[in-house]
């Protein structure tokens, strides 16, 4: 029996409302992903200055390469998170590669996350120092307080908080781009030559810099992206959310590279080029931009320290908040190194490690995992639709529906209890939205247990039926 033959479908307004919720979810995932990847170097413009603008117009070609690679890679990473219901990156790495490679990726990412984290804290200090003249430690200390406070929230709240900051980031960056284009009064060749002469390139040529930065930009958000994906029931929604987030990141990167290159004479020696550019538009807007940049730094610092704490606490989940606090405070102690020097020395090393990670994650996804994830996504949609159907008192639940549900559960890569726990929030929302059925929090918490019991009862019934048939056959013989 094909699973699709017994799957009830949403009709009319119900289907449209459900699709609207999926689109909204994709947008929120995309904004959250952009928020955890944008970072201090991107938000401030320092990364763009060193990795792209310093190569003149060749840097724009590099930004176009990033635009092609990043969205599809982000899609793969978030789909992996959803598929495995990952609570940390270790689950994904150990599932798609050999034990040795997985351990290398696991430990390598944890170390790199920590490095990115304390660079973010250094960027926070540099931000408030450049705009307001405050001591470097003040901006870093305030950032630590914000990160520790927000990190005590659960995964969904952290994702929503990061996603909520993102529209402000995008608006500020677009304002800088518009200003740079409208006020440009030089020549294209002139800014190209000035960039080559006065820039501080991260690597010997633009192509190496592009490859390295693509790995770096993906690497800084891999761990939190996996967690964001792991909190989403639908691999399809998680994947398209990742694609949207990657597209926003690489699209803004391209625009900002052009903007900074057009104004290279004004920003080439600034710690925070984007902030310096916006400050030229209007001092008040510069203050707003400083706060916005600070929030961008916060989003990445929160993402890397939160996901690192979750990973280190995997063997002892009860100690998660304590471990998160400790690694954040240790990062604060290392954040007093100069920000520009950190970007120029730490990030290229992390970037090459990121290239390796991207190659493994994207390669395994393209070769085999993409098909498995797609099939699992359809299977989960069937499971959700059948459970919704069973909850509706106006619908007739038959053995055929039960068999189809259990078949889908048996074929899933997750256990019945995991599936039930995973789908419960989405199921409760959809039941209320499309059927007017209220599912209490207690009932949601027991859904995994009930689905597991239903699977066990079905298996026991099948075994008894098989034994009875065998006995009748022996008697006839």
SSE layout:
Elements: H1 12-44, H2 46-51, H3 58-83, H4 89-96, H5 99-132, H6 136-150, H7 155-182, H8 188-198, H9 206-230, H10 235-262, H11 264-267, H12 273-281, H13 283-312, H14 320-334, H15 339-391, H16 399-411, H17 416-435, H18 441-445, H19 447-476
Helix pairs in contact: 1-5, 1-7, 1-9, 1-10, 1-13, 1-17, 3-9, 3-10, 3-15, 4-5, 5-6, 5-9, 5-13, 5-14, 5-15, 6-13, 6-14, 7-10, 7-12, 7-13, 9-13, 9-15, 12-13, 13-14, 15-16, 15-17, 17-19
Brief overview:
Helices cover 82% and strands 0% of the residues. It has 19 helices and no strands. Residues 443-466 have a biased composition (Basic and acidic residues).
Name some characteristics of this structure.
single chain, 19 helices, disordered N terminus, mainly alpha, 477 residues, Hydantoin permease, YkvI-like, 0% strand, elongated, membrane
What would you note in describing this structure?
- The chain has 19 helices and no strands.
- With 477 residues, it is an all-alpha fold.
- The chain folds into 2 domains: 346 residues, Hydantoin permease (Orthogonal Bundle), CATH 1.10.4160; 74 residues, no CATH class.
- It is elongated and about 80 Å long.
- The N terminus is likely disordered.
- It comes from Kocuria varians.
């Amino acid at each position: 029996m094909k699973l699709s033959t017994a799957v009830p479908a949403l009709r009319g307004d119900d289907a449209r409302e459900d699709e609207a919720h999926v689109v909204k979810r994709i947008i929120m995932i995309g904004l959250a992903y952009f928020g955890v990847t944008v970072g201090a170097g991107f938000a401030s413009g320092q990364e763009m200055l060193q990795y792209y603008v310093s190569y003149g117009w060749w840097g724009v070609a590099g930004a176009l390469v990033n635009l092609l690679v990043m969205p599809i890679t982000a899609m793969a990473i978030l789909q992996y998170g959803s598929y495995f219901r990952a609570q940390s990156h270790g689950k994904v790495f150990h599932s798609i590669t050999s034990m040795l490679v997985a351990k290398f990726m696991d430990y390598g990412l944890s170390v790199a996350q920590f490095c990115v984290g304390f660079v973010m804290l250094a960027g926070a200090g540099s931000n408030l120092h450049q705009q307001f003249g405050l001591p470097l430690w003040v901006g870093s200390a305030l950032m630590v307080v914000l990160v520790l406070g927000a990190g005590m929230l659960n995964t969904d709240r952290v994702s929503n908080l990061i996603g909520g900051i993102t529209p402000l980031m995008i608006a500020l960056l677009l304002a800088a781009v518009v200003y740079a284009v409208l006020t440009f009064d030089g020549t294209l060749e002139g800014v190209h030559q000035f960039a080559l002469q006065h820039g501080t390139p991260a690597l010997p040529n633009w192509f190496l810099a592009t490859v390295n930065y693509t790995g770096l930009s993906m690497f800084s958000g891999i761990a939190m992206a996996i967690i964001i994906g792991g909190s989403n029931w639908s691999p399809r929604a998680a994947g398209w959310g990742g694609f949207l987030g990657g597209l926003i990141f690489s699209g803004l990167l391209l625009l900002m590279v052009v903007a900074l290159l057009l104004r290279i004479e004004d920003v080439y020696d600034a710690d925070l080029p984007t902030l310096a550019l916006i400050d030229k538009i209007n001092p008040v807007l510069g203050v707003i931009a400083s706060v916005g940049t600070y929030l961008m730094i916060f989003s990445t610092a929160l993402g890397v320290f939160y996901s690192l704490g979750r990973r280190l606490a995997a063997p002892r989940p009860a100690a998660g908040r304590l471990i998160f606090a400790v690694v954040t405070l240790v990062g604060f102690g290392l954040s007093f190194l100069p920000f520009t020097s950190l970007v120029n020395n730490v990030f290229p090393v992390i970037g090459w490690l990121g290239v390796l990670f991207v190659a493994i994650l994207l390669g395994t996804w393209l070769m085999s995992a993409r098909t498995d994830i797609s099939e699992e996504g359809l299977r989960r949609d069937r499971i959700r639709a059948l459970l919704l159907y069973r909850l509706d008192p106006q619908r007739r639940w038959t053995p055929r529906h039960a068999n189809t549900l259990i078949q889908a559960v048996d074929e899933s890569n997750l256990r019945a209890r995991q599936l039930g726990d995973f789908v419960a929030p989405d199921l409760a929302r959809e039941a209320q939205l499309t059927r007017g059925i209220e599912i209490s929090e207690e009932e949601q918490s027991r859904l995994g247990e009930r689905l597991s019991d239903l699977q066990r009862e079905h298996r026991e019934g099948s075994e008894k039926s098989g034994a009875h048939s065998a006995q009748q056959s022996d008697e006839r013989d």
